[in-house]
Specification:
eight-stranded mixed sheet, Nucleoside Triphosphate Pyrophosphohydrolase, alpha+beta
């Protein structure tokens, strides 16, 4: 079982926020990771998730996934499985499951260093069925592929779409996802 001293706490303690609201989210999540035995547990009203924006640098395109429940285009990613505590590995697993891309690899924003999240954000999640309103503390990475043509949706209703940098900014509706795309644009010179 993951512990509060696990990988997620280390990642959050090293992360350098870009502005005050992001730092407030980071500090909330760092406290969660330090005090909860499993900060990834879906039973918590605020729990960690990991996601990624998938980029194909040669074509300067970004992959977005249709999220049927929320009715919008989003990045790929999701919840950790029991015992998982490494946000990068969770983001990679989720991205591969949701896209079918087996060649995904993390983009290190500082060459020669361990890949770090490019964004940390707390997002509200509306109630559905027996699941009450809750929050996801999302640690977001950049992943790259060399085989964009192999992307396949994991299920009907989870369409995938490769878009240019500008078109992806037009498709997304949340400000925090727009900011993630802008950060990807900066990282890749899009």
């Amino acid at each position: 079982m993951a512990t509060g001293s696990g990988s997620s706490a280390r990642v959050l303690s090293r992360y350098e926020s870009r502005h005050a609201p992001e730092n407030a989210d980071r500090l909330r999540l760092l406290e969660l990771a330090r005090v909860e035995p499993d900060p990834w547990s879906r039973s918590l009203p605020l729990h960690l998730t990991a996601s990624a924006l998938v980029v194909h640098p040669p074509s300067a395109r970004i992959l977005l996934r249709w999220h049927d429940r929320l009715g919008q285009w989003m990045q790929v990613g999701g919840h950790g499985d029991p015992g998982e505590d490494d946000p990068l590995l969770i983001a990679l697993r989720e991205a591969e499951e949701e896209t079918g891309l087996a060649d995904l690899r993390p983009h290190a924003t500082v060459p020669g260093h361990q890949p770090q999240p490019v964004q940390v954000v707390v997002v509200p999640v509306p109630a559905r069925g027996d699941e009450p309103d809750h929050e996801h503390g999302d640690l977001r990475y950049l992943l790259v592929t060399s085989r964009p043509e192999l992307a396949q949706p994991e299920s009907p209703g989870a369409d995938l779409r490769w878009l240019s940098f500008d078109d992806s900014l037009q498709e997304v509706t949340s400000a925090n996802l727009r900011e993630l795309i802008v950060r990807a644009g900066t990282a890749f010179g899009l």
